[in-house]
Amino acid sequence: MKLRELAYDAFTENLLSRQISPGQFISQRELVALTGMNLGAVREMIPRLEADGLIRSVPQRGLQVMHVDMELIRNAFQLRIMLEREAVRHFVTVVSDAEIAALRADHEAARAAAASGITPDILAQAQQTDWDFHDRMIDMLGNDLIRTIYRTNAIKVRLIRNEDTRMLPELAVSVMDEHLAIIAAIESRDPEAAENALLAHLTSARQRAVRI
């Protein structure tokens, strides 16, 4: 992996862990310190961050990290819904019975753990189960362009969640239930039902985000 790609990954990790704040102005020197990369790698990373909408250049002020606002929420969720509607309909037709069974088992385990009492580890498990499910459906499209667009948008969605809509303890069970409804439709090999269950799930997530 090239240094600029390592720098990009380090930047996004710092952004999602809130070591970098939305709306913050940041210098190249600070980016060097945060990413642990050299100045050359940071300078090569910046055009990609700008292209992905994660930072912008402000005349006479420098680099500003993207901030969470209603426009970001609207655009990020609109793109997510567009991509995942196509993905879930395809997923229904190609996923194996064995993988569906594994998905159900993972979600039922995460739901049971959350229902028995939330701990940080259980919450992290539920969140990872959530992310992995959506990522897997996108990956099954076998389209690198869509995968790249989705991953970049996912950074923005997860940043929004860090503001207010991350997997909160009281939401863990309901989110797993929403996923299990999607999985039930996939088990039935019903693309229409799977798409409708997915839309209900993503609409719920978007509504939580709008309340920021």
TrEMBL record:
TM stretches of this protein: none
Domain called HTH gntR-type: residue spans: 1-68
SUPFAM superfamilies found in the cross-reference section: GntR ligand-binding domain-like, Winged helix' DNA-binding domain
Acyltransferase as UniProt keyword: no
InterPro entries from the UniProt entry: GntR_C (IPR011711), TF_FadR/GntR_C (IPR008920), Tscrpt_reg_HTH_GntR (IPR000524), WH-like_DNA-bd_sf (IPR036388), WH_DNA-bd_sf (IPR036390)
PROSITE patterns the UniProt entry points to: HTH_GNTR
Keywords: DNA-binding, Transcription, Transcription regulation
Name recorded for this polypeptide: GntR family transcriptional regulator
Species this chain originates from: Roseinatronobacter alkalisoli
